[in-house]
Amino acid sequence: MTVLETPNPTTNAPTAPAVPATADSCAGPRQPDRRPDGQDRYTISEVVVFTGLTAHTLRWYERIGLMPHIDRSHTGQRRYSNRDLDWLDLVGKLRLTGMPVADMVRYAELVREGDHTYGERFELLESTRRAVLDRIAELQDTLAVLDRKISFYAEADQDAGLVRDVRQMERVR
Fold it and tell me: Alpha carbon of 1 to those of 4, 9, 63, 147: distances in Å?
């Protein structure tokens, strides 16, 4: 069962939500090395290669509820699907935004609860987006300071008879 699936209350069997073609998806562009849907059962070692995450991190995500319903083989080994890889890709993007793990877990809970949580999910993601925009503005200000310092030292080097290749500085930007 994946993070987007919920157990059937009667049989406790996993059921995937009906997903219309226009539905929100956590999938980015499909990675070329993935198996076709239906044949997509990856071991934890394979997921480590795909994602760059450690096996410890994957187990921890499962333990804290970020990925609580990973399928298991008949021997108890974790089996990840393409949907799980898509979810991990989204989680990676959320991590890059600086979203706290507790908020990521809350988002995962909201996804599992169903469509009626769209409003709360929207607010959570919108808040994260605002924080990212604030961080981008802060980094742009920092970059401007660095550019001024670099220009100062380039001019000082030129005045001292040292000539720097300005094109080299532009490549760094």
Answer: 8, 14, 15, 50
| Residue pLDDT, tens place only, 94-148 | 999 999 999 999 999 999 999 999 999 999 999 999 999 999 999 999 999 999 9
Task: Count the Cβ atoms, other than its own, within 10 Å of residue 12.
Answer: 7
The Cα–Cα gap between 147 and 144 comes to: 5
- Cα-Cα-Cα-Cα torsion 113, 127, 24, 89, nearest 10 degrees, comes to -90
Can you read off the two tokens belonging to residue 63? 């333990």
Residue 4 has pLDDT above 90, yes or no: no
Strands 6-7 and 78-79: unpaired
Report the candidate in 73, 110, 67 with the shortest Cα–Cα distance to residue 86: 67
Separation in Å, CA 64 to CA 34, 98, 104:
26, 18, 10
Return all residues near 109 (Cβ < 8 A) that are at least 6 apart. 65
Query: What single-letter amino acid sits at 49?
Result: V
